[in-house]
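Please check this.
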Amino acid sequence: MTSKRRLKKEIDYVVSDLILDCFTYTSLYEKPNDEAALLIIQDTLTMRNDLRNKANHPEQKDASVSVKSYYDTIAKTLLEGVDAGYGKLAKMANAED
């Protein structure tokens, strides 16, 4: 398990990459107000805020869950959420080609 500080930095780093790629998509295909891309960004930021809140407040976890598995679950949720966002972005980019 990494430290809480490292986990929060990883959350910010991975989320910022996805958001940057969404903005790159909108500028590359000249669609500045593309609703689908903006929805991906909104969902990603909501996920980021939720995961940062969970990382900052481990006292909200169930009593039966160990601290290590609690933070591992946060990391797993981050990867699944970002992967889903990239999947949606890939579908939009492939539809344009």
About this structure: The chain has a mean pLDDT of 90. Residues 67-96 form the longest helix (30 residues). The helical segments are 4-28, 35-56, 67-96.
